[in-house]
Amino acid sequence: MGSDIEHGHGHGHGHGQQGRGRRFLAAVRHLITPHTHDSADKTDAALESSRLGLRVLGISFMILVVTASAQAVVVALSGSVALLGDTLHNFADALTAVPLAIAFSVGRRAATRRFTYGYGRAEDLAGIVIVLLIAASALFAGYESVRRLFDPQEVGALGWVAGAAVIGFLGNEWVARYRIRVGRRIGSAALVADGLHARADGFTSLAVLLGAGGVALGLPLADPIIGLLITVAILFVLRDAAREIYHRLMDAVDPALVTLAEEIIAATPGVSRAGSIRLRWIGHTLRAEVDVLVDQEMSVVEAHHVAVDVEHRLIHRLPRLGAATVHTDPDGPELTHAHRPLIAHRPGGHSGTRPEPA
């Protein structure tokens, strides 16, 4: 037996967002159909995470546009091809906020008969786009570095170029820290990946700075050599971002969460022991499906009360858990008999009452 009670934390509704003054976010929101949920508290919690994610995207979008615009002015003054590439790159990367903003907005839609778990997985799809953009950043930086290694370009107004590179690095690093911090806070792998993307772009800007310094010291090949080193750094960022998204797509969770869930279940009055525990991320919210064993002499009503208590404790104590389905099994000889019709349909022919080892 089970239930799907979800829990929020008392955040207030705020469907009228135009007063916030962010036209970019408002434009995206107008594309999305309004949503409804059965539980007001659950809606508040989901909306708060989505609003926070959208706020991060809007602010970081504006920061990156201002950063790239400042670099564009210096490009016009210096004629630096390297800085031009970095500037165009930063303008393009500011637009990565678009797929994520759409994903956050789509994720707020109510579940349907076709998408019964809702639309939270849209974030993971946006994460794939971001990983591809990081890969494109690495290819672009590597190509430009190799090209300049064999065909060095003269750079003028080195002081201005260095200043613009610093602006590019600081802007991207600020955005990276902001996105990563909030992404981890709300459990969004896609937002964390986008923060890592911004960090990779900061490395690209830093390459322009160090290259300009090398040229000023009479080392014309310093720029492309440092560019190649920065490309390697971007590849490490790509690895981390790809791993983050891969884990989400494969329904991976931190094993410590499973251990915590086991402890919560074991401490619940009426539970003999925990059975199988399955956790998965849907967007930036966890969902749990667990089996618990109770005294086989319990009545249906008593077992249901235990299941509800387990669910309530999990939702309160397991970070980012939005919903849990709890199934009770009799703990005793009746367990094997009760599951006999299902054993042949389960992998390995086991009863499924114990979690499989990782």
Short note summarizing the structure:
Keywords: Membrane, Transmembrane, Transmembrane helix, Transport. Helix content is 63%, strand content 9%.
Map the helices and strands.
Elements: H1 23-29, H2 40-78, H3 81-94, H4 97-106, H5 122-150, H6 158-186, H7 189-216, H8 222-249, H9 255-266, E1 271-282, E2 285-295, H10 300-317, E3 321-331, H11 334-343
Parallel strand pairs: 2-3
Antiparallel strand pairs: 1-2
Domain Cation efflux protein cytoplasmic: 262-330
GO molecular function: cadmium ion transmembrane transporter activity; ferrous iron transmembrane transporter activity; zinc efflux antiporter activity
GO cellular component, one term: plasma membrane
Distinctive features:
single chain; 358 residues; mainly alpha; Alpha-lytic protease prodomain-like; Alpha-Beta Plaits; 3-stranded mixed β-sheet; 3 strands; 9% strand; elongated; disordered N terminus
Notes on the protein architecture:
With 358 residues, the chain is mainly alpha-helical. It has 2 domains: 18-249, Alpha-lytic protease prodomain-like, CATH 1.20.1510; 255-349, Cation efflux protein, cytoplasmic domain (Alpha-Beta Plaits), CATH 3.30.70. 63% of the residues lie in helices and 9% in strands. It contains 11 helices and 3 strands. The protein has helices spanning 23-29, 40-78, 81-94, 97-106, 122-150, 158-186, 189-216, 222-249, 255-266, 300-317, 334-343, and strands at residues 271-282, 285-295, 321-331. The protein has a 3-stranded mixed beta sheet, sandwiched between helices. Strand 1 and strand 2 form a beta hairpin. Helix 2 runs antiparallel to helix 3 and helix 4 packs antiparallel against helix 5 (122-150). The relative contact order is 0.12. Residues 1-45 have low confidence and may be disordered. One of its GO terms (cellular component) is plasma membrane. GO terms for molecular function: cadmium ion transmembrane transporter activity; ferrous iron transmembrane transporter activity; zinc efflux antiporter activity. It is a multi-pass membrane protein.
